[in-house]
Write a structure and sequence with these properties.
The protein is α+β, with helices and mostly antiparallel strands and 303 residues long. The strands form two sheets. Strands 5, 6, 7, 8, 9, 10, 11, 12, 13, 14 and 15 form an eleven-stranded antiparallel β-sheet that branches. A four-stranded parallel β-sheet has the order 2-1-3-4, sandwiched between helices. α2 runs parallel beside α6 and α3 crosses α4. It is elongated and about 60 Å long. The two termini are 26 Å apart.
């Protein structure tokens, strides 16, 4: 079997570079060929993954949730993509949490060497892809606007500080959601479509599955030109959604479950794909059931 190991040398405070010899040595015990590539810039991981399709049986990669997104962008259009082995070393590692992949390097490598393959869902957004969350509105720009230097220094706290600095205005925007059997139009401050259990390190969607072909949509409503009280009320609704979960009883949250959503939003609204800056404007979001082959710990039942 042929393995292609792609790693981000700056993710996770450079931990992968320090353990590189160990990782390659362990991979060579399982795979006949192990080729190694260090990414050099944003988008490099996506390009490398796309070029690996058809040449390798397994792509092993390291990085954070954004790195997972790059890999999925690279292989999402392939009919028979390689299996993916993931070594999480990002700031929050939401996808690893959901899939039960150990966050320590040795544990993650052991999973790749001795684990099993699970077929998990992902999302297609227009002609792009995402693994676990598509979101727009309050705080969603923090993950891609936070400087890498701050992430290295203070980890996930950096996201909170950047979010507070850039998003406390709680800008209100129009949104129209078309589900297979309903159309909803509202003003909102936040919208999220989820395929995983964890978002921003919190178990926001605890009863979901990445193998059920369904997505969970949450919208926080807000009228235009809100007064201070209404702004505070929206902030509380957002906090309750993240801290208490998708099914929390909250009047300002609209919820839907399904496998297909068309969402129209006003100009300038940017969608966040797995923590990375995505598209602007209208998006069509589809669940792609069991599209991605992920190597997970042996005996994993609850994904």
């Amino acid at each position: 079997m042929r393995c292609f190991f792609i790693y981000n040398p700056v993710s996770g405070k450079g931990k992968i570079v320090k353990k590189l010899d160990y990782i390659v040595r362990q991979l060579k015990e399982k795979f006949d060929v192990v080729d190694v590539y260090a990414t050099k810039c944003s988008g490099d991981m996506e390009r490398a993954a796309r070029e690996a399709v058809g040449k390798y049986d397994v792509i092993v990669f390291s990085g954070g949730d954004g790195s997972v997104n790059e890999i999925v962008q690279g292989i999402g259009g392939a009919d028979d993509a390689p299996a993916l082995g993931y070594i999480p070393c990002g700031t929050v590692n939401d996808i690893a949490h959901t899939l039960g992949i150990p966050r320590k390097i040795r544990g993650a490598v052991k999973t790749i060497v001795s684990g099993e393959t699970a077929m998990v869902d992902c999302m297609q957004i227009n002609d792009r892809y995402a693994m676990y969350v598509v979101a727009a509105g309050a705080f969603t720009s923090a993950t891609y606007n936070t400087p890498q230097s701050k992430k290295k220094q203070i980890g996930r706290i950096a996201y909170g500080l950047e979010g507070i600095k850039k998003n406390m205005k709680f800008d209100v925007f129009d949104i129209t959601v078309r589900c297979p059997d309903e159309i909803v139009h509202t003003d909102s401050v936040f919208v999220s479509i989820m395929n995983g259990r964890y978002v921003a390190g919190l178990k926001m969607n605890r009863f979901s599955s990445m193998c059920d072909g369904k997505l969970e949509l949450a919208i926080i409503k807000q009228k235009k030109n809100p007064n201070l009280f209404k702004k505070i009320r929206a902030f509380i609704a957002l906090a309750r959604l993240f801290l208490l979960g998708y099914r929390v009883k909250e009047k300002q949250i609209i919820r839907y479950e399904g496998d297909y959503f068309e969402i129209d939003s006003q100009d300038g609204i940017v969608w966040n794909f797995d923590g990375e800056k995505g598209l602007e404007g209208k998006v069509v979001v589809r669940a792609l059931p069991r599209k991605i082959k992920m190597i997970v710990p042996k005996g994993t039942q609850d994904i």
